[in-house]
Specification:
heterodimer, A: alpha+beta, PH-domain like, three-stranded antiparallel β-sheet, 46% helix, B: alpha+beta, 3 domains, six-stranded antiparallel β-sheet
Chain lengths: 169, 468
Amino acid sequence: MSIAEPGSPPAEPGDADVVWQRPSPLLLRARRIQTVLVTVPVALAGGLAGMAGSAPLGIGLGFGLVLVGLVWERFLARRVAAWGYAERNQDLMVRRGVLIRRQSVIPYGRMQFIDVTAGPVERSLGLATVRMHTAAAASDARIPGLDRAEAAKLRDQLASLGEAQAAGL
Amino acid sequence: MTGPLPGGSAGSAGSADSAGSAGLADSAGDNVAGWHRLHPLSPVVRAGRRLLSIVIAVVALFLLNQHQEGGALVGDLVVVTLALVGGVVSWLVTRWQVADGVLRIETGLVRRQSLRFPLSQVQAIDVVQSGLARVLGLAEIQLRMAGADSSGGRLACLSRADAEQLRRRLLSMTRAPAVATVALPDAASPAGEPVGAQETERLLFRVRPGRLAGAIALSRAGAFAAIVIIAMALVAALTGQPGIVASFLPFGIGIVLAVWRQFNGEFGTTVAAAPDGLRLRSGLVQTTAETIRPGRVQGVRLVEPLVWRAFGWCRLEVDVAGPRQRREDRSESQRLRALIPVGSRAEAEQMLGELLSARPAPSRRPPRSARWKAPLTYHFLAWGGDDRYVVASRGRVCRKTTWVPLEKVQSIRWLQGPFQRRLGLASVRLDVAGKRVTASIQDRDAAEAQEILGRLPVLARDARIRAA
C-alpha cells in the first residue's frame, strides 16, 4: 500500500475488512515498455504497408496506430492500479480490471499448483507473475508484477497453506 | 519381430492366451501380483475401422486388378501385414496388473511406458464396446482420472465377462470416502467385498427410443440436418441437375453422421442406482457402461430448449471431473454426460432428487434493472441456494439450470462489466472442477452480489469440512 494511488478503484465488495496488497510500482513501467515494444513495430509495419498504397495513407495509418498505443497507455495506470490481492485466513482474494472489474476468491485448499513466471520485460525489471491453478479451468487467479523475492515468498506461503488445507475433488 | 521384446515373459501367443482368460479368475479373489495380458483379439478391435477399410480396399483392388498385374496389390498386402504385425506387437508388449490399490499398465515397444493409476483417485470407470468389439465379445475398460487434459487409463480389450468382473473389482477397491483426500492414497479401503457379492440395482431411468429420435429431430443439430437435406433436395429438383448437389454431399453426410452419432450414443440410455454409484449404460452400436461414483458429481445441469418445452421435455446432464472419454467426437465433447438425454419433467425431478437431496429451487429473481442488461434472458434469470447447493438458471431460448454442490466449488468470481456498473448490478460465478460447468449468479443487485461474495466462501468452506 506504499505507492500513491492515481486511479484507485472505488470501494468494492469486502473492502471493509480486507487489506489489499499491491503489485510493485515497477509493474507500470513494465507495462509501458511492453506497450512501446508492441506499438512501435506495429505502427511501422502498418505505415510501410500503407505506403504501398499512397504516402499520406501510410503516414496516416502509422500515426493512427501510434495514437492507439497512446490511448492504451492512458488506461495503463488505472489498469495497473486495479490489481490487488489479499491473503485472508482461508482463501486468497485477487482483484483486477477497470472496465470489467473482477474479483476472485480461491480457497487455499483448492490450489492444485502455483507457478511463477517472468517474461523478458518483467525479468529485466526484477518482477515476476504468480499464477494459481485450481481444478476448474475457469478460475483465473494471477498476480503480475511482484518483486521477484516477494513472488517466491508468496508462492511458498501459498503452497504451504494449500498443503495444510488441501481438500479432495 | 519377437526378438527385442522387453521383459519377454510369456512371449508366445499360446501361453498368453491362457493367461488372459485364466489370469482374471485367479486374481478375482485377492490381490495376485501377476501380470496379465489383454485379449488376443484386441489388435483386431483396436485396428477396428481402419482395418476394415483396408480390407475393403484390398478386396476392391483385388476385384479390379484381376486382369492386371498384381504390383499394387502386393503393396497393399504389405501395408495390411504391417498394420497387423504392429497391432500384434503392441499387444505382445502390453501387460497390466492390479496390486496395492494401483492399476499398472506397461506398454510400448520402442517408447516404453509404465503407467500407474492409483485407484483411490479414479473418478469413474467405463466399459466401452465398439461395434466390432461387440461382435467379438470384447470390451474396453477406461479409467477416468481428475486431470482435465491427461488421458486416463485404458485397457483395450478384455473379454466382456472379464471386463465386467475387473470393473467391479476396481470399483470395490476405489471405494474411498466420498471425498477422498488427495494427499492420502493409502486411505483407500482394502480390496473390500467379494466380487461375487449380490449386486442390487435400482432402475432410475430408461430413455424412450421414439422420444429420443423426436427430440434429436427437434434439436438444433437435427433441425440443421433437416434444413440441409431439404435444401439439397430442392436444389436438385429445381435445377434438374443432381450433379450440382454431389459436390456438397460430403458436407451433408457429415451432418447426418453427427446426428446419427448422437442418436447412437444416447440410444437406450439407462441409469440405475447401485451401491457403488450410478450405473449408466447407453449406445446402439457402440455401447458404453459407466459408473459414476457417489460424491464425484461436480455439477448438475437441466437443459430445456424452447421447442422441447412445448412437449415438456428436458435434458439432465452431470459433470464429472476429468476429460471427456471420446475426444475425437467434437460435438459430443462440448456437452456433458447426459443422465437423461431426453425425458419428462417428472423423470428429471426424480433423478434430481436422487442426485441432490433437498435441493434449493432458483427462486430469487434479479432486480428490475437487470431487464436492461439482459432483456431476453431476464425471463428465466434466477438463483437460489442453501448451505449445501447453489442453483442458478438463465437463458431464454434454451433454459439452463445449474446446480453446484458448495463442497465442490473451486473458486468464486465476482465481476462487473461497464453496463452492469451503470445499472448497479454485478455477477458472481462459482467454478467447479472441469471445463464446462459454472453456476453463474447473473445480474444481481450490486449490494446483494457483494453479500453473496462475502458469504459463499464461508458456506463453501463449511460444506467442505462437513463432507470431509
